Amino acid sequence: MTYYITPAPVRMRRWAPARVSAPEYNFRLAVDVREEEDAYLLSAIVPGLKADDLSIQILEDVVTIEGTFPADENDHLLRELPQGKFHRSLRLPVELDAEKAEAKIKDGLLTLRVPKAESARPKTIKVNIK
Questions:
Q1: What is the CB-side half-sphere exposure of residue 44 using CA atoms within 13 A?
Q2: Of 48, 85, 82, 41, whose CA–CA distance to 63 is shortest?
Q3: What is the CATH number of the domain that holds 95?
Q4: Per-residue model confidence as pLDDT tens digits over 68-79
């Protein structure tokens, strides 16, 4: 069983990583990660975005999601919807098979299925009794 240690659940919040200047990334994308026997399922809420608005990269065991929420220049009494650039990198416990990864957006929910590399999948060995 794999355990993930994360801070308390958060919604999209203002965030600026230490390695970049504050205006470059405005939000840290909130992501749910679920493990299946042969793959990981990542889910993120991306309201108003299309597939062309996202960049998803997979390198060994790291998944990176980047994009930009459109800015709205209208006056608002209350502004809670995200706007601006976001970036999220997640290191998963095993190496991933980027060639077989699948991503889709439906009703503002990004679902990314990333299979584990063949070397990371559990093997079943038969025991012969003589």
A1: 26
A2: 41
A3: 2.60.40.790
A4: 988 878 888 888
